[in-house]
Amino acid sequence: MDSFFPDTAYKLLGFFDNESTLYAVVEQHFINANEKTDLKQVEWFMNLNGFQKIRNNDYFNSELGIILEDLHDENVLTSNGILYFIDTVFYLK
Prior knowledge:
mainly beta, 4-stranded antiparallel beta sheet, two-stranded antiparallel sheet
């Protein structure tokens, strides 16, 4: 889903098998947050991009059929006034 948040897109490095469990190994750019994230700003940004808040910090885009969850202030960082989405969860509906 790097088309949504290209500045913080995951890069798949490979896979790791540990005791019959397969794990994806990923890398993501480090973001040095220098401001507290304002969740009202996150909501404004999401609304601007067609997502409506459905509960807590979860959003839904009915046109795309995508639910985006976990947009709290530990997963959306702010640096120099720019929002960076680092650990969001996507679902197709």
